[in-house]
Amino acid sequence: FAPKDMVGRKVLISAGPTREYLDPVRFISNPSSGKMGFAVAEEALSRGAEVVIVSGPVSISAPVGATVVPVESAMQMRDAMEAHFEWSDVVVMTAAVADYRAAEQKNEKQAKVSEHFTIELVPNPDILSGLGSKKGNRVLVGFAMETHAGVERAAGKARRKNADFICLNYPTREGTAFGGDDNQVTFVFPDGTFQDLPRMSKREVAEHLLDEALKRMQWAIQQ
Ligand code: C5P
Fold first, then answer.
1. How far is the CA of 129 from the centre of ligand 1 (A)?
2. Could you write out the DSSP letters of every residue in 172-190?
3. Angle 90-10-181 (CA atoms, 0-180°, nearest 5)?
4. Given the CA of residue 96, which atom of ligand 1 is nearest to it?
5. Where is the DNA/pantothenate metabolism flavoprotein C-terminal domain (predicted)?
6. Which helix or strand (DSSP H or E) is residue 200 part of?
């Protein structure tokens, strides 16, 4: 049985991909399944926490007891995360947010015009950075997928985004990350120190992640 060590804690989770529409029927997205975020939600619920999941379009069902706020685009995800931030104690950003959206979203389906077709993209806001800038005593956890220089890049992200730590995972390892039931993560801290975890189920990763988050929270409260 999980310890009920999160009773009264409020956990806000972003999960899944975002969709950036080009026109009413086409969008830019990625293969994020939402499994990692929903596993964090399940683990937090089993430990007695209240949970809100802001989720992009996913095909898995949310754990019983979680409040789900469905969104599609990064801008909608940002608004929903901002709206629930004040309420939260722990924020876990597992969502694979699209870095760019179309500069202009057409109201009508675009017809094929010629061989070459150029889409102008503009950067999406960084949701985690926005929340990090008003962090307070909350614990903020991000995810990052890197193919190279993982620890160094993740530590930089933790510092820039003001996250307590980043769960680094690897898109190219079999059975893990995108879509898989397992994950292999490294917790990377802003000072560049890190802790490697072996491959395990996403639910077990969630357990370790929340243990680490609780440690940070107790530390913050004592300061
Ligand atoms: O994409 P990147 O590797 O920078 O993502 C690191 C963390 O920042 C992830 O937790 C992701 O959910 C978050 N992020 C975000 N908004 C973005 C891009 C990433 O919140 N626009």
1. 8
2. TSTTSSTT-SEE--EEE-T
3. 65
4. 12
5. 7-214
6. strand 200-201
